[in-house]
Amino acid sequence: MAAHNDTGRAGEALALDFFRQRGYTLLHTNWRFGHLEVDLIAERAGMLHFIEVKYRTESQYGPPEGAVNRKKFNNLKRAAAAYLEQHPQYRDLRFDILAIAQGLRGEPEFFLIEDVFL
Asked: Which residue spans traverse the membrane (predicted)?
């Protein structure tokens, strides 16, 4: 398996723990609709969250949240629309980005950007 796949799994595990500790109910991980994917779909206090997770172990490419560009965000919105068609019981939603930066020997640093619109 490629190293980036292992890195992605490590980031997902950190993200799952992060949201569980904050009282989110995780509904789906890596939810797919065609070629579109949502990293995490969670619910908290009646609000549905579509969450993009970015994890970096090196800083040479900039902060993790910088990897969420307009195209990525538009794909997230399209996937969310498809999800809502399949699950019409949800009315309130938001888009969040969880950026996780971790040096090779350091503790992970979490930066949650809530209610994102690009």
From this structure: none
Give me the DSSP letters along 8-73. Answer: HHHHHHHHHHHHHHTTPEEEEEEEEETTEEEEEEEEETTEEEEEEEEEES-STT--GGGG--HHHH
Q: Structural domains in the chain?
A: 3-59+79-113 (3.40.1350.10)
> pTM, whole model, 2 decimals?
0.90
Query: Half-sphere exposure of 27 toward its Cβ, with a 13 Å CA cutoff?
Result: 16
Give 18-62 pLDDT, tens digit per residue. Answer: 999 999 999 999 999 999 999 999 999 999 999 999 999 877 778
* CA dist., res. 111 & res. 71, Å (int): 21
Give the number of other CB atoms < 10 A from CB of residue 12. Answer: 17
